[in-house]
Amino acid sequence: MEELMNTNDNTTAAQTTADPKPMTAPAPINVWLVDDDEGYRTLLAELLTTQQGIDCPRQFDSPDAALSALASKTGPDVLLLDIHMRDRNGLDAIRPIKSLARSTRVLMLTTFYDGGSHSRAMEEGASGFLLKSCEVHRLAEHIRERDASDLGCPRRRRNRSNIQGAVQSPSSHTTRPSHSKWWRRFPLLNDILR
Prior knowledge:
Structural class: alpha/beta
Order of helices and strands: HEHEHEEEHEHEHHH
CATH superfamily of one domain: Response regulator
CATH topology of one domain: Rossmann fold
Number of strands: 7
Strand content: 15-25%
Radius of gyration: 25 Å
Distance between the termini: 72 Å
Largest sheet: 5 strands, parallel
């Protein structure tokens, strides 16, 4: 009788291992790159494809080339768009891109942060605004986000108590005048020091 029970247990175990349903991996996120710097564009595409679930099949050296492709093909999931390109401005291309590919999320890339460009990009319909110096894994996280409207400019997280402690601690340097919060007048510095 004990042999019969062992046989039944083995049969059940064999059935459960033979029945697993094949798991299909989700389709990779399709990313197009638009940047006039071929070296940067190629390197970024290679680095992004090393990130799980991201594919960069198309690259363009101008917004016009990307718009031509969008006129005849389905848009990507995400389009990374440089702001300053030779004689073109990526900010001018956001609305036309969104009109041809409504579901495509446009993430702006720039070397230097500019509050005016950031505001305009969001008004035109961009889903995010990122510095080119952003680490690849962080850029990949932003690409994977479904709703990237809250991306804003990259921030370093700091604890307010650490900042206050640093300001209040005595030092050998001369103390700042009463207008020591001068950095609040600059959006990028204000965001970094939060």
